[in-house]
Design brief:
Mean pLDDT: 76
Shape: elongated
Number of strands: 3
Order of helices and strands: EEHEHH
Low-confidence stretches: 8-15, 141-147
């Protein structure tokens, strides 16, 4: 996980946030729950400086088992715990596909429009959540399943 902690300060300088990275083990039944625990954990006692990745807090990876980072295949990190810029990149192709579909020479039939509109609304809602740095809206029947 990457985040920020207070940098050492002096009387002449106000405290600032230092970019840091850390690894922890959390017991959770789902990746979403483990990421939420990591995101809410304020104990950065084992952190390391990471000036290459300054910015908002985000989850870089999740693995099964205790202290198993990078030793096995990583599990998928729920996108709302990912870095904002990466969320934008990952969502771009969905938005492009949804825009390209109605941009046909003859447009959409009523049936196609009724199929397309709910997917478009969900994609726009997710795009807004990304921009506002919120968790993803429920995507249980969203456009990502059809990709």
């Amino acid at each position: 996980m990457r985040g920020t902690t207070p940098c050492p300060s002096s009387p002449s300088k106000p405290p600032t946030a230092c970019p840091t990275t850390g690894q922890r083990t959390y017991e959770a039944s789902t990746p979403d729950e483990a990421c939420r625990q990591a995101f809410e954990d304020e104990d950065w006692s084992g952190e390391l400086p990471d000036f290459e990745c300054a910015g908002s807090t985000y989850i870089t990876g999740i693995w099964r088992g205790t202290d198993s980072a990078y030793e096995s295949a990583a599990l998928a990190v729920p996108s709302h715990f990912d870095e904002t810029a990466q969320r934008m990149v990952d969502h771009f192709h969905i938005l492009l596909d949804l825009l390209a579909y109605p941009a046909q020479p003859r447009g959409l039939s009523q049936v196609d429009f009724e199929r397309w509109l709910p997917k478009a609304v969900k994609a726009v809602d997710k795009a807004r959540a990304i921009i506002e740095e919120r968790r993803d809206p429920d995507q249980s029947a969203g456009p990502e399943e059809s990709s």
